[in-house]
Amino acid sequence: MTEHITSLKNPKVQQWKSLKDRKGRRETGCFLVEGRKMVEEALQSSFPVETVLVDEARAEEFALPADVPLVLMPSHVLSAVCDTKTPQGIAAVVRMAQTPATGGRLVALDGVQDPGNVGTIVRTADAAGFDGVLLSVQCADVFSPKVLRATMGSIFRMGIRVTDDLPGELRSLAEKGFSVISSQLDGTPFYRREPVGDRFALIIGSEGNGVSDEVKAVATHRVKLPMRGGAESLNAAVAAGIMMYELTKDLD
Fold first, then answer.
1. Could you give phi then psi for residue 229, rounded to 5 degrees?
2. What are phi and psi of 84, to 5 degrees?
3. Alpha carbon of 231 to those of 137, 211, 225, 235: distances in Å?
4. CA dist., res. 176 & res. 224, Å (int)
5. CA distances to 24, 74, 230 from 122, in Å
6. Could you tell me if 206 and 240 are in contact, meaning their C-beta atoms sit under 8 angstroms apart?
7. Global pTM?
8. Could you count the other beta carbons within 10 Å of the beta carbon of residue 184?
9. How far apart (Å, rounded) are the C-alpha atoms in residues 244 and 156?
10. Are 174 and 221 in contact (CB under 8 A)?
11. Contacts of 66-75 spanning 24+ positions with Cβ under 8 A
12. What's the CA gap between 193 and 172, in Å, rounded?
């Protein structure tokens, strides 16, 4: 089904514009992805794609499944809906879906608030062979435009779970035999850590405060990366990347 919308005042346009904000996403249960790659990733995923929005002047550039609802609109209307200045002529409204963060290799984000860090960690977890990401509710919204762009499509391939009880989730994993690894400045050296086994959850704390005391209390391993120069710490996403690849190096 194809629809043509030309007015910025159209109620649907107003609703799609609201997806830029967390409140709008919560109220509708949807989020917006922008650009050809992200739309293709969404269409290939298990996430329900509600509508594809296309610049009417560029409609012939995109080969879309016949059963996907399509809305054609002028470029200025599409630009008003999108968060980026150059949305590449295409965007999609996608229904939120929390896919279980299952499997033996998980990363848990404890209050990581920078959208770029959250998105980069999701993308790196995907690349490193992790199975899922647990996020506390204090983290940046995983469905926000900035986080989505930083994931480069990995959001659609990873198990994602947002929880208001991260300590409880991690405690449950520990009871199931998972190693729970807390990354903290007063931990033991990461490269001399005790064995963590095949099932583990790596915790990355907030940029300003690190891992919370409640989460630290659940950890079975507390580690820190060596700081051989003058820097006291690393960017959260960089530290996460180093440790994720080291923990999965035996997969090769």
1. -110, -150
2. -85, 155
3. 29, 19, 11, 11
4. 25
5. 23, 33, 28
6. no
7. 0.92
8. 17
9. 19
10. no
11. 68/43, 69/1, 69/2, 69/3, 70/1, 70/2, 70/3, 71/2, 71/3, 71/4, 71/5, 71/12, 72/2, 72/3, 72/4, 72/5, 73/4, 73/5, 73/6, 73/13, 74/6
12. 22
Instruction: Per-residue pLDDT tens, the chain, 252 aa: give them.
Output: 899 999 999 999 999 999 999 999 999 999 999 999 999 999 999 899 999 999 999 999 998 988 999 999 999 999 999 998 777 899 999 999 877 667 899 999 999 999 999 999 999 999 999 999 999 999 999 999 999 999 999 999 999 999 999 999 999 999 999 999 999 888 999 999 999 999 999 999 998 899 999 999 999 999 999 989 988 888 999 999 999 999 998 766
d(CA 52, CA 70): 5
Of all helices (H) and strands (E), which one includes residue 78? helix 75-81
What tokens appear for 212 in the block? 């919370």
Question: 152 vs 15, 47, 85, 145, 190, CA distance in Å?
Answer: 24, 16, 17, 11, 29
Encoded tokens for 119: 């998105």
- Contact between 80 and 49 under an 8 Å Cβ cutoff? The reply is no
- Residue 220, amino acid: T
In the block, tokens 């907030």 appear at 206
Q: Which two tokens stand for residue 52?
A: 């594809």
Please state whether 210 falls in left (phi above 0), alpha (psi between -120 and 50) or beta. left
How does strand 30-34 pair with strand 49-55? unpaired
